[in-house]
Specification:
By secondary structure, the chain is mainly α. The protein is built from 16 helices and no strands. Helix 12 packs across helix 14. The relative contact order is 0.16. Keywords: Membrane, Transmembrane, Transmembrane helix, Transport.
Length: about 400
């Protein structure tokens, strides 16, 4: 088997960065097509939203155990097999007219993407150390944020020109090209596999989840990203059915949201040396101010533009907070990078899938006011978690604690 060495380390890292956005593309590229899918498949709005929720749940749950598998059996071959299978699942979606078949394929895609993502995130822990490792892991979520920027924007045009199945053709082509590049240039990054012992794996999971600051981080990440998913689930119907714009406009709206998310992540990278709790607390307070302003000004406007102003501001701050805590959690246990990366992302997505589907369905988001209410609920919950975190960090710590740094 070919391994990543000094000679191909840089090209492998570049390919990993190119592949990291695939999860975001798999989630977001077809968002502007939601209304068209409802009509073409003869199904309900809730069923089309459920295709995203099923993916999120599968993606999240899979990452909880995928990390231990790739720590035991290696990253490279599993990643290659997952890319090949992902290509096939997209072809099945293109050929079917059954939303139930799409449900199954999306569940399978969540599992496959989890293997790809955990494998590629682990590469930076496996082959880099010290400040370079922190630099690359901090850059991970910034690069990942490129998908929410590009995917719905691209999806809007694909829907407008070719209809909704073109989105899944795109995903198949993307994965196939990356499969060829990985075969040619990349390799295994795990120098020494760990024997798979269920008891040992379970104990590692218990220790990580039982580490309070790490566990709080999973909840904060999930609540934060719920803002983006709620927007993705609700915006197409608001923009296309209420305001009667085309899917291209949905793509532009998602592009604005994605750029805000990306810029927020970049700002957090720039401020990486600033105090951890101060950054999170101040950002959460400003988020709350914007969300309440969005709610109280709802009666003054009946347009997509003021909604997008507040969405952009809130998603910028969300990207800022997400990147801070994602970097913190990802580097918390470097000796078990696959497991910790899987729990961080997987646990966050489980929280996201629950709150995003619950709020989008319960609030029936159809205007600025209901959007604002969903954001306020999430921001208040994040604020409560940060209060618990501050109290925990200010506690005297016992001498012997489980730490990975």
């Amino acid at each position: 088997m070919r391994y990543v060495t000094d000679s191909n380390r840089n090209i492998s890292a570049i390919l990993a960065f190119i592949l990291i956005p695939i999860s975001g593309f798999a989630m977001d590229v077809y968002v502007p097509s939601f209304p068209a899918m409802v009509q073409d498949l003869g199904t309900s709005v809730s069923n089309v939203r459920l295709t995203m929720t099923i993916f999120l749940i599968s993606y999240g749950v899979s990452q909880l155990f995928v990390g231990s598998i790739i720590d035991s059996y290696g990253r490279y071959k599993l990643c290659l097999a997952s890319l090949a299978a992902f290509v096939l699942t997209n072809i099945v979606i293109v050929l079917t007219k059954s939303v139930e078949v799409i449900f199954v394929m999306r569940a399978l895609q969540g599992f496959l993407i989890s293997i790809i993502m955990v494998s590629k995130r682990s590469l930076f822990i496996d082959v880099f150390e010290g400040d370079k490792q922190k630099h690359y892991t901090s850059l991970l979520s910034v690069v990942w944020s490129a998908a929410p920027v590009i995917a719905p924007f691209l999806g809007g045009y694909l829907q407008h020109v070719f209809a909704w199945r073109a989105n899944f053709y795109f995903l198949a082509i993307y994965a196939f090209v990356m499969l060829l590049l990985e075969l040619r240039y990349s390799g295994e990054t795990l120098a020494k596999t760990k024997p798979f012992h269920l008891g040992s794996v379970v104990n590692t999971y218990k220790k990580m989840i039982g580490t309070t600051d790490f566990a709080y981080g999973i909840v904060v990440l999930g609540l934060s990203y719920s803002m983006a998913i709620i927007f993705g689930m609700s915006a197409p119907f608001l923009i296309e059915n209420v305001f009667h714009y085309s899917p291209v406009v949905t793509g532009y709206a998602a592009l604005s949201s994605g750029i805000a998310l990306l810029l927020g992540g970049m700002l957090s990278k720039y401020m990486i040396a600033r105090d951890f709790m101060t950054k999170l607390t101040v950002a959460n307070f400003i988020q709350g101010a914007f969300a309440f302003a969005m709610f109280f000004t709802a009666g003054l406007f009946n347009s997509i533009f003021p909604i997008m102003f507040f969405v952009v501001a809130l998603h910028f701050l969300m990207g800022f907070m997400y990147n801070i805590y994602f970097t913190y959690c990802l580097t918390r246990f470097p000796e078990s990078a696959g497991i910790s990366g899987g729990i961080t992302s997987g646990g966050g997505y489980i929280v996201t899938s629950f709150f995003s589907y619950l709020l989008a369905s319960a609030l029936n988001i159809h205007n600025q006011e209901t959007f604002a209410i969903s954001y306020i609920i999430l921001i208040v919950l994040i604020g409560v978690m940060l209060l618990f975190l501050r109290a925990y960090l200010n506690k005297p710590k016992p001498v012997n604690t489980f730490k990975g740094d």
